[in-house]
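Suppose a classmate hands you a notebook page containing two proteins, each written out with its sequence and a corresponding row of structure tokens. How would you begin to make sense of it? This section walks through that situation. The first entry is reproduced here exactly as it would appear on such a page.
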Amino acid sequence: MNQTVDIRELNERIQKESSFVDIISMEMNKVIVGQKHLIESLLVGLLSGGHILLEGVPGLAKTLAIHTLATSIDAKYARIQFTPDLLPADLMGTMIYSQKKEEFVVKKGPIFTNFVLADEINRAPAKVQSALLEAMQERQITIGETTYKLQEPFLVMATQNPIEQEGTYPLPEAQVDRFMLKVVIKYPSKDEEKLIIQLNLLKQFPVASKVMRPEDILKAREVVKDVYMDEKIQKYIVDIVFATRDPKAYKLDKYVDMISYGGSPRASISLAQAAKAYAFIKRRGYVIPEDVRAVCMDVMRHRIGLSYEAEANNITSEDIIAEILNTVEVP
């Protein structure tokens, strides 16, 4: 009985605390037409402290989305175009000799910001990719002998172009795993595209207003941690992840030879954190199975290794996840 009262109180508190979600969404919708899933994914990443890998053809407002989010939160933003000749120092910063001071001084790189857009991350060599991924994981950077903490909130949104693969350096599986979400963006509908044309023909393109501060996001993250998750939901998450490791145990025999490796414990953690953030966005103080299902595809699609047999049969990780969600018992 006590728990019911607590849940009710928690629900009321989270409804109050999450009211800003609608305000940010409204500001983003001023600038971005459609792409509801992209906006939700950005908010899930932001509220759970996870980074996002975006895949989509050019021109689908990937850059515009993160810039608009940064504007509405009044946060610092940097766009880094990844190219084959980029060096880790171009990203992190380096020591330069100051003749005036007659000593080496630190020149910080563009990564010292709140929101980083790593544009076409697969265009830069492995050295640069791993430098960025270290910053994502540790949230700190070492230049010379000094380690510098990165500002919070710190969110990396990396983009990948799926159509041009010549001269690119695909991210290794172990590094892709550091992204909480991999979001695949689709083309807009006809009506949405008409609206996009109208917006771009206006004398002045709409701009998002500043409606929040970075400190508000840090407070909201603490509230997201309080969202209640029942043990049954935790078991459901574990079952989904274990089904990718041992499909036979879940009567998914046809996928035994299709999966070379399944989700790691990081997948389970990310799925739980993302489900909590999604419940928060939906103004709820507790997680329901639908929250897990809503974020599952984005959390898991880059964490399942496909065998040659799967590729030969045109089976994708999305097909496997959809089948797992249909098979694993919902609490």
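The notebook's second entry, a different protein, reads as follows.
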Amino acid sequence: MTLPTLIANYQKQETISKLQKVYTILNQALKLSEVDNGEFEYWDVDHSDPEAYFEKYWKPYLKIAKMCNTYQECGYTAIDPLTFANGNHSTTSIVNHMRTTFYLPDGVLLAISLQSGGGTSEDGSPIPVSDNLGIFIDLNGANRPNQYGKDFFVATLTKKGVLPSGYNLSYDEVAENCSKTGSGSHCMSKLIRDGWKIKDDYPW
């Protein structure tokens, strides 16, 4: 193998390993929280107060190295540093009033949301704000590439635990999203369905 191929293979395996680890951490934290607070669907949540939600239901069950109140504190050079798998710029903000953002001891950044939306989409249309128990995962924090499917992944809270975005879609729908022409927001779902392997059709 050539050196670039060896490096790429190492990066792929490191991505899988780190994503598996944080996926386990999140689900373990949820289970511990449910022992103390009951099943998550019955949690008394004020969707306008993500800080109170995080303080009660998540913070006691996670090892947190650093909290981020601004994108600069997180180490990013912009509030919206992400690109989609297809190379287009994403307007998703790492830090805002709808989510709580922090680092784990191993350098993984997490942002746990109560709402999503706001701002504008790629075509300029407004994105409505809605309740959304989503979780952003940036495996290497502010370090590049900050791209969906490479170091940035999306999960969501469900009755079955923390699951990847797109868990409820067909494999074809997930594969279309996690491609060189898609956004990549469902790439963790594709990785899991492919047995935690990065296949040739993956947008690496």
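A careful reader of the second entry would note: Residues 3-193 form one domain.
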